[in-house]
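Researcher: Good morning. I'm working through a list of sequences from a screen, and I'd like to move beyond sequence-only analysis. For each chain I'm collecting a predicted structure so we can compare shapes side by side. This is the next one on the list. No need for commentary yet; just the structure.
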Amino acid sequence: MNRRLIDLARVIRSKNAGPFELTLDIICKDEDAYAILKRAQVITPERMAALYHVPVEDILQIIYFEPAHAVKVTMRRRIPSGAFGETDIYGAQQHAPLMLMEFSCDT
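Model: Good morning. Structure tokens for this chain:
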């Protein structure tokens, strides 16, 4: 069965984690949606690197936080916040690729 991440999530957002890193937050609608996402194992360094067109080494951390039914991905910014050529100083517009993400799962 194919799923869309946006159908499981209550919140999908991005923000700065300092001037050199970006955080992506996926907060699921409920415990069942979180379980589906976690079981599908689609939030991986390799998948995030491919989705954001960055080297896998730039995906610094993926944390599944069960009490909030959330997943947090921390990655290096291509251009530091506020530097010449940077287009999203707050990192607040970087979540869009996650909103289009689809994956297969057995539930």
